[in-house]
Amino acid sequence: MEVKIWSDVRCPFCYIGKRKFEAALADFAHKDEVTITWKSFELDPNIQTVEDTNIYDYFSKAKEIPHAQAVEMFDNVTAIAAEVGLDFKLDQSIVANSFKAHRLIQLAKTRDLGDQIEEELFKIHFTEGKNIDDEQVLIAAGQNIGLAEEDVKTLFTSDDFDAEVRIDQLEAQRIGIRGVPFFVFDDKYAVSGAQPTELFLQTLEKTWESKS
Q1: Which of the residues in the chain have pLDDT under 50?
Q2: Which candidate, 2, 127, 184, 188, has a CA 20 to 30 Å from the CA of 34?
Q3: What is the separation of C-alpha 23 from the centre of its chain, rounded to a whole number of angstroms?
Q4: What are 175-209's pLDDT values in tens digits?
Q5: How many other CB atoms are there within 10 angstroms of residue 159's CB atom?
Q6: Residues 160/123, Cβ–Cβ less than 8 Å
Q7: What is the DSSP string of 32-83?
Q8: Residue 166: which residues within 8 A CB-CB, separation 6 or more?
C-alpha cells in the first residue's frame, strides 16, 4: 500500500498531521507493508524570506488582522501541537520560502530518507527557529539524516530537483489539492488536513480491505 502525502514544511498542521498519521500507522496491523511517499506543495511560492520580522507581525500584516488575533491563532496552533507531543516555538520561527527545502526533500527521497528529512525540517523550523531557506542550515539538516555534505552542496549550485518539486505541485493541481496536509491512499481514498488519528486508521484499514 502506498500513502502519498502532500506537505509544506512551513505548514504547522502538516507537522501535526504527520504525528497523527504516525500514531494511526503504529496501530495498523499491516504497517510493514505501507510505503510513504512525500510530495512537495508550496503554500505560498512567492513568499519572501524575512529573518528580522516576528511571525506575528508578518501574519498580522499579510492577513490584515489585528496583532492580538494573530498571537491568539498561533497560541491555539501551539496548543494543538502539544496534544500530539510537539513543542512548537512559533514566536521564534522565521518567515521563509520553502522551495530550497523541497528540493532537499526530493534529493533525500532518492536515498530513501524522505521521512527523515521531513521530520528534520519540521523540527528545525517549528521548534528550533532556524531558517529553512538558508543553505547552510539545509546542508546541516541533510548531514543530520545521513546525506553527504557534498551532495547537498552540489544541490544548491545546480537546478537539480527543481523539476521534481514542480511535478509534484502540478499533480496536486490536477487532482484538486488546494491545501495541505493531503493524504492519498493507494490512489483510491483521500484525507485532507490533520484529521483525528482514528480517521487515518479507518482509512488505512479500508484501503487494505479494498485490495483483497
Answers
A1: none
A2: 127
A3: 16
A4: 999 999 999 999 999 999 999 999 999 999 999 99
A5: 9
A6: no
A7: GG-EEEEEE--S-TTPPPBTTS-HHHHHHHHHT--HHHHHHHHHHHHHHHHH
A8: none
Q: Which amino acid is at 201?
A: L
Residue showing cell 484525507: 191
Residue 210's contacts (CB-CB under 8 Å, 6 or more residues apart) are: 186, 188
The confidence score (pLDDT) of residue 52 equals 86
Size (the chain), residues: 212
pLDDT of residue 53: 84
Distance CA 163, CA 204 (A): 30
Query: Which tens digits make up the pLDDT trace of 30-52?
Result: 999 999 999 999 999 999 999 88
- What is each CA distance from 67 to 10, 186, 207, in whole angstroms? 20, 42, 44
The answer to whether 24 touches 59, Cβ cutoff 8 Å, is: no
